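User: Could you go from structure to sequence for me? I need the amino acid at each position, not a summary. Structure tokens:
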């Protein structure tokens, strides 16, 4: 079980402001979480392959083909300033 000092240290590391009255509740919750993790650590997992996804499904992919015409020149003709295929904007970093 975590001590109140452990909870304060965790709160400090997480940069959380915690009232003194809230520490016992958080202490109990965090201790229960750690107990659950300890129980899960006891489960035998030898021979079990890790899963990338819980469902054994494959994603349908489409061909990576161009379906629209290049309209860059049309769009840049509407821009206040453009040169060599780039939009010119005011400098924001000195």
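Assistant: Here is the amino acid at each position, in order:
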């Amino acid at each position: 079980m975590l001590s109140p000092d452990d909870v304060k240290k965790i709160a400090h590391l997480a940069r959380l402001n915690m009232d003194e009255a809230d520490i016992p509740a958080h202490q109990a919750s965090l201790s229960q979480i750690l107990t659950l993790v300890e129980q899960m650590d006891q489960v035998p997992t030898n021979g079990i392959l890790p899963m990338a996804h819980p469902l054994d499904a494959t994603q349908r992919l489409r061909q990576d083909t161009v379906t629209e015409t290049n309209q860059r020149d049309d769009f840049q003709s509407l821009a206040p300033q453009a040169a060599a295929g780039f939009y010119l904007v005011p400098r924001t970093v000195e």
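One structural detail worth keeping in mind: The mean pLDDT is 92.
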